[in-house]
Specification:
It contains ten helices and eleven strands. By secondary structure, the protein is α+β, with helices and mostly antiparallel strands. Strands 1, 2, 4, 6, 7, 8, 9, 10 and 11 form a nine-stranded antiparallel β-sheet that branches. A two-stranded antiparallel sheet has the order 3-5. It is globular and about 55 Å long.
């Protein structure tokens, strides 16, 4: 009997100890104010490890996270040789957006100076690389890596609106030493992000057009603590994606991880709730002059 009781106690101890090994304590270390932005460019090892634990704690694939962290190291090493100011620690700012333009040209100059044969990844590739295990499509659109020209030697869309939108991205992926997706993953990426024609004039109409498009393509998201955040813009004729990020939920808090374009930095920001995340996205897009947008968390409109 004593052996049986001892065995049960050991079993309970083991079971209770089988929680998430990447249980991040990042929220208890940093406190975001009600206004402004709390973010970092992950320019030191300690913060990189904290963000790594938060992403893994939310369910991101460990290999994918470490691959992205390797790209961050590469980008930040180039940035050290330029006048860019990268934030090592989480830093509270007064404004609720970041001026990414100050990073573009210094990073681009260094990239070409070292004759790197590929571009760094952008926001869509970064987010999808971390999130791709949580999304699927029953009716994927095959990627067609082919330019078609009309009689005037101009690109011929041929009724397939948006096909050329990502062709440069796919060409870069094929050259990239880290982003090694399967053909099915390439097709899935294209299926999620390919723009669509839409005469939307309100947020509600844009949301309906997007969700209808995704439904037709059979796109579904798995529930979990990691979400795909996408920002879509409409202009009365079409609906296209502007930005992507991943949102990690951990210990009651939220960490947004993103990159904007090949020449901009990587960024992790801490938020108290999804309303703050949405406001940040709206303010960030507004700083670029985009005001007709919707912010999605997976397939739901972000509240």
């Amino acid at each position: 009997m004593k052996r049986a009781i001892a065995f049960i106690l050991v079993l309970l101890f083991v079971l209770c100890g089988c929680g998430n090994p990447y249980d991040s304590d990042i929220l208890n270390k940093y406190t975001k104010l009600d206004s402004g932005l709390l973010y970092t460019n992950l320019a030191n090892d300690e913060v990189q490890e904290e963000v790594r634990e938060a992403l893994l704690g939310a369910g991101a694939d460990e290999t994918a996270v470490d691959e992205i962290l390797g790209l961050i190291e590469h980008y930040n090493d180039l940035a050290k040789e330029s006048p860019m100011l990268l934030l090592s620690d989480f830093t509270q700012t007064d404004t609720n957006f970041v001026d990414f333009s100050v990073y573009y040209y210094p990073a681009e100059e260094k990239w070409f100076e070292y004759e790197i044969p590929y571009y760094d990844i952008n926001c869509h590739i970064t987010a999808f690389h971390l999130f791709r295990q949580y999304v699927s499509a029953k009716n994927p659109l095959p990627v067609v890596m082919e330019y078609v020209y009309d009689d005037n030697n101009e690109l011929d869309v041929g009724g397939d609106f948006g096909r050329y939108f990502f062709i440069i991205e796919f060409e870069n992926i094929q050259k990239h030493p880290v982003i090694d997706w399967t053909q099915d993953e390439m097709d899935l990426f294209y299926t999620i992000y390919k723009p669509t024609l839409s005469d939307s004039s309100t947020e509600e109409e844009a949301y309906k057009a997007l969700t209808t498009m995704w439904k037709e393509r059979g796109i579904s998201f798995k529930k979990g603590n990691l979400s795909l955040i996408t920002v879509w813009h409409w202009n009365g004729t079409d609906l296209g994606v502007l930005h992507s990020a991943v949102l990690a939920e951990y210990n009651g808090g939220l960490l947004l991880f993103e990159k904007v374009n090949p020449w901009s930095h990587y960024q992790a920001s801490i938020f108290n709730n999804t309303a703050e995340v949405k406001k940040y996205m709206l303010d960030q897009m507004d700083s670029y002059g985009h005001d007709t947008i919707i912010v999605m968390r997976n397939d739901k409109l972000m509240e």
